[in-house]
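Fill in residues.
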C-alpha cells in the first residue's frame, strides 16, 4: 500500500492532520491501533482554546461544536474557603474558551473522514517506522492478523506518548526533557448537572480539585490523589466526600452529587522530545510532548502542532517549498515550551506537593492571592489559558 502522508494514530492530532491535508487534495492513510468505539469513548480533555475553536471552524469541523459547545468567559480560583473569578475577555481583548469534550472532537473528525471516503484503518497497529532518512519512509503495521507495509513520502507520528513513532528513533537522535510529579489525577464523569457555571480550580491543604463539565446535565470532576493510587481505593461515596471537602466555601454554595459513570487515574508528567523532525519522520502532539493537565493545554498543543505541520506540508507538496517544513520543529516547540511553562506553573501553584513544607504552602497562597488581586498577574494567567495566537 502507498500514500503520500502516512499518519500513525487517530487521536485529535492524527485526525485533524488527515482532515487538513485531505482538504488540500493530499493523499493520506491514518492507522489506529484501537477500535473506533474505544477512541470515541476515551475520556480526556475538555477545554478548547480560542485558536483551536478557530481552526476547527475554518476547516469545516466546527458545526456540532458551535451547536453544543459551551462558551466560558472565565474560571474560578478557589482557596482559603473563598472563590475568586478570573474574567478572560476583559483581560485578553475579547478571547475566551469553550467546553467541548475531546471525545466529541474525535467523533466529529472521524465522521468527516469516513464521509469523505478517506482511508482510516482501525485495529491497525503500527509496529515500526523505517528508512525515514531516505525519500521513501515506510510504516510496518499489523491489520486483520497480517503484517503490511505502508510506503510513504512522509510519515507523521501522532501516536501519543506510548506510541512507536518516537521509539523508532535511535536514543541519541532525541534530546528529552522530563519532570514527573509525585501525584496523579482521579477523574470522574457523573450524571449530575454541574454545581457551577464556570470551572473551579481549587487549592486545598488535602490537595487540588477541579470542577469541570461536559454538558448542562453531565459533570466532570478531578481530584489530586497519590501517585501510586488505584481506582479500587476510591468508592463513589469517598470521591464525593473528598470533593465536597476540597470545594467547601464559607457561603452557602453546595456540591451536587450524582451517579458516577466513568472513573480513571492519570499520572502527571511534563515531557518534551526535541527535535520534531527526523528526515521524513515528523512527531506531533503527545507523541512529542506531554503537559500535566492543570492548564488544559494537551489537546490544544496537538491541534497547534498539526495546523503548523499541515500548512508546511502543503507548501512542500503543492509548491515544492520546503522552508516551512524545515522550521516546523522550531516553530512548534516555541509554543510547546510556553505551554510547558504555564502548565508547570498552574500545577505547582495548585497541588499539594508531599515533598514541600509549610514554606511552600505559604508561597502558593501568596501567589494565588497575587493572581486574583493584581491585574497584571490575572492577565498573565488569562492570556496563557485562552492560548496565545497561532503563529
Ligand atoms: P492521543 O489522543 O493520545 O492519540 C494517539 C492515538 O494513537 C491513540 O488513538 C492511540 O490509540 C493511537 N496509537 C498509539 N500507538 C499506536 C500504534 N502503534 N499504532 C497505531 N495507533 C497508535 N488534556 C487536558 O487538557 N485535560 C485532561 O483532562 C486530560 N486528560 C488526559 C487523560 C489521559 C489518560 C491522557 C493520556 C491524556 C489526557 N490529556 C488531557 C491530554 C490530551 O488528552 C492529549 O494531549 C491529547 O489526547 C493529545 O492528542 P494526540 O492526538 O497527540 O494523542
Ligand atoms: C478539563 C480538564 C483539564 O485538565 C482542565 O484544566 C480543565 C478541564 C476537562 O476535562 O473538562
Amino acid at each position: 500500500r502507498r500514500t503520500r502522508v502516512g499518519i500513525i494514530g487517530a487521536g485529535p492530532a492524527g485526525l485533524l492532520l488527515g482532515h487538513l491535508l485531505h482538504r488540500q487534495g493530499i493523499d493520506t492513510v491514518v492507522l489506529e491501533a484501537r477500535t473506533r468505539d474505544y477512541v470515541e469513548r476515551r475520556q480526556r480533555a475538555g477545554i478548547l482554546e480560542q485558536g483551536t475553536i478557530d481552526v476547527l471552524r475554518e476547516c469545516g469541523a466546527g458545526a456540532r461544536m458551535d451547536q453544543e459547545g459551551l462558551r466560558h468567559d472565565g474560571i474560578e480560583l478557589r482557596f482559603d474557603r473563598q472563590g475568586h473569578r478570573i474574567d478572560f475577555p476583559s483581560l485578553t481583548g475579547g478571547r475566551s474558551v469553550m467546553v467541548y469534550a475531546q471525545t466529541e472532537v474525535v467523533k466529529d473528525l472521524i465522521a468527516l473522514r469516513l464521509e469523505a471516503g478517506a482511508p482510516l484503518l482501525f485495529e491497525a497497529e503500527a509496529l515500526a517506522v523505517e528508512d525515514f532518512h531516505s525519500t521513501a519512509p515506510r510504516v510496518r503495521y499489523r491489520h486483520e492478523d497480517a503484517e503490511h507495509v505502508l510506503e510513504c513520502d512522509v510519515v507523521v507520528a501522532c501516536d501519543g506518548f506510548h506510541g512507536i513513532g518516537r521509539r523508532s528513533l535511535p536514543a541519541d537522535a532525541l534530546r528529552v526533557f522530563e519532570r514527573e510529579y509525585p501525584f496523579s489525577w482521579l477523574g470522574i464523569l457523573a450524571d449530575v448537572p454541574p454545581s457551577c457555571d464556570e470551572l473551579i480550580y481549587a487549592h486545598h491543604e488535602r490537595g487540588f480539585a477541579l470542577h469541570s463539565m461536559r454538558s448542562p446535565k453531565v459533570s466532570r470532576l478531578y481530584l489530586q490523589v497519590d501517585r501510586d493510587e488505584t481506582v479500587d481505593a476510591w468508592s463513589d461515596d469517598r470521591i464525593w466526600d473528598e470533593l465536597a471537602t476540597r470545594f467547601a466555601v464559607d457561603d452557602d454554595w453546595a456540591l451536587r452529587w450524582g451517579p458516577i459513570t466513568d472513573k480513571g487515574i492519570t499520572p502527571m508528567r511534563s515531557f518534551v522530545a526535541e527535535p520534531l523532525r527526523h528526515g521524513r519522520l515528523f512527531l506531533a502532539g503527545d507523541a512529542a510532548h506531554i503537559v500535566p493537565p492543570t492548564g488544559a493545554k494537551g489537546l490544544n498543543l496537538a491541534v497547534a502542532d498539526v495546523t503548523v505541520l499541515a500548512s508546511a506540508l502543503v507548501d512542500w507538496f503543492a509548491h515544492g517549498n520546503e522552508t516551512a517544513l524545515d522550521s516546523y520543529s522550531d516553530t512548534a516547540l516555541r509554543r510547546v515550551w510556553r505551554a510547558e511553562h504555564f502548565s508547570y506553573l498552574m500545577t505547582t501553584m495548585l497541588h499539594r506537593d508531599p515533598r514541600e513544607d509549610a514554606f511552600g504552602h505559604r508561597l502558593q497562597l501568596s501567589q494565588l492571592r497575587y493572581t486574583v488581586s493584581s491585574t497584571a498577574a490575572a492577565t498573565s494567567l488569562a492570556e496563557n489559558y485562552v492560548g496565545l495566537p497561532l503563529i
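The pocket of 3,4-dihydroxybenzoic acid (ligand 2) is lined by residues 45-47, 199, 212, 220, 293-294, 296 (CB under 6 Å).
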